[in-house]
TrEMBL record:
GO terms for biological process: transcription initiation at RNA polymerase I promoter. Residues 609-650 have a biased composition (Acidic residues). InterPro entries: RNA_pol_I_trans_ini_fac_RRN3. This is RNA polymerase I-specific transcription initiation factor RRN3.
Amino acid sequence: MKRSISTPTAASAAMVSTEQIADFERQRQGQIMMTTYISSAIREKKQGNPTPYEELIAQLTVSKPEPLTPTKLLQWIQAMSQCISLLDKSCSTLIDAMLQINWIAQDDVFVQNYMSFLGNIVSAHAFYVVPVQSMLVKKLITRHKPSTLENAPAISRERQYDRVHQALKYILDLIPTGPTSLFPLLAAEFPHKRESIHAHITYVKNILRVLEYIPVLRNQILGVVIDRIIQIDVEIQVELEELEDSDTEVVYDWDVPEYAEEDDEDSDSDSDSDSDSDSEALEVTVLNIKDMTRKLDGMLFLVFSYMKGYIDSCQHLNDPSGQPPAPIQELFLVLLSIFMKTILQTFKSRHTQFLLFYCISLSPQFSDYFLGALLQQILDKSQPQVVRVASAAYMSSFVARAKYLDVRQVGMVIQMLGGFALETVEQVDTGSNVMPDAERYAVFYAVVQAMLYIFCFRWKVLTIDGGKSQSNRDDFESAGMILGNMDGASEPSTEAPATRQWHSDLACLQRIVTSRLNPLKICSNNVVKQFARISNSLNFMYIYPILEQNKKIFIHSTSSGAGSDGSGAGSNGQSNGGALPHELETFFPFDPYRLPQSAPFMRGIYQEWEDEDEDEDEDEEDYDEYDEEEEDEEEEAEGDADEDDEEDMDFIGRHNAEDENKDEEDETLMNQSVLAMSISPSPAHFLVQGMTSGLSKRK
């Protein structure tokens, strides 16, 4: 008979197995005791003795002097899961204590047990859904700290956010109505615009990730994100304008030393103190603008990235008919809805609208839909005038800047705008008291300005150059457009090609600009001057005589008693003390996009300014001569009324000579080059980088 030999390895294995069994039994007994204790504490609380219940809450409080070990805390969680049916509304404080546990920084076993507890509690008691969701939403923005519990593992921040999303998805899978209660919590927890860049970037990244597993909230979540982006966007523009208004000279003079040497020891100390105080306040404002700009850039980058990822994921759904995939159509309609309800109503929005600009580039059908929606706003007399004017501004800027528009679409816009403007002229131009009125006919002037602006950018697709551009000719003819020579006013440029043919719907411009409504007087001075230069150079129209005459015309302010229909507008007349020149306020929402992190999304779809290259030198000389004469006469007639406009509104074609010295420009002046084809109201909108650069040099 063979004797079995007990090896050390076998003995050790038997010992380990015995210890594991004993440990498991101890845990089981401990859990039974905890479950009994919890049940007893809840029962005694309902009977009027809250002491055991309060002691139980104290056990779970992480901030107590000696917090529980992860193992002990896990036992309490497992025991609590055995008492789910007892945890009614009267136990809300106990549930609150459970929700305060720093569970996302624990090991996987702990996390799985905690998630299981959350699922059990919301499944059994619907009134705990909102508190549980609220706890999870708060963790989408919190800068998570390492666990204070003993022997807790080191978990990366990204891993912790992964766990929050995993738990949130798990809860929503259990509760079909969960998204309804979740969205208000997501909106309420959005960081205030004054909170840190980190807080905004973290939250936007996480809230967009929620859309991966709750697509039903796409409309609402994109809406709240874009709304917060607009708030920051507008805040930047407001602060820039206030900065410019308070001390324009300081904005442009960043090389002046912050503290000049004192030549006189008896210099006025109060004056120095005031100067230092102003300088400090200015620096704070500039740094705040820089901070908000980085915040805006980062948030837009995340939304652009989300859109690109979503679009790429839908490419396999391409429709053979050429229609965009249904999910992309849905995304476009969501963004268009947000635009119509929010962005269009916000006059000072500078960058937010480019989200829609990017989405529209995906399909010509989106362009048609967007242009149609804007046109409907322009023509709808029930809409507020400010919305109709803004719609015209958006249409002109979009057509000018959207590189993906084709000849048909540009021609369609010119046709529609021209038809509206011509109809207005024919309705009112025969009256005996018709005169320019920027308030009463604001929509008309906005439409005419849109046509002039579009022409400056898109004249190449509106012309056929003596048959040289046969592809363009084919495009026009296939679109059903009639071609014909345009007769300019007197004295067109004699050097321009005589064979150039223009889109037939441009013919109405001559009738419009020579009407008694005199749009060349009311439209933006910079737009008008640039149109005059280009149209003369191309032998399209010669309007300098009208501009010369308009310099002598001044329009009285509309009386305060004027009705909403615009009655009571002033009349034409020579300049006097009570007369103020009126000009349509300029707003071109798709001016150059200069936020560095998110700007790459505009590559290939954004049309930069391209000057016409024919007879440019000769006409530029003629234009400059006219411009100098105009400035001299305006100074005599109006004093300094238009001085700021002349200095600040550097317009489209004046950058040709500057291009030669572009590499030699000082860094602080870099942003002024952005104005090359920007005619928005203020150059301060583009000086953030220059200002912050100057401040860094002065430190």
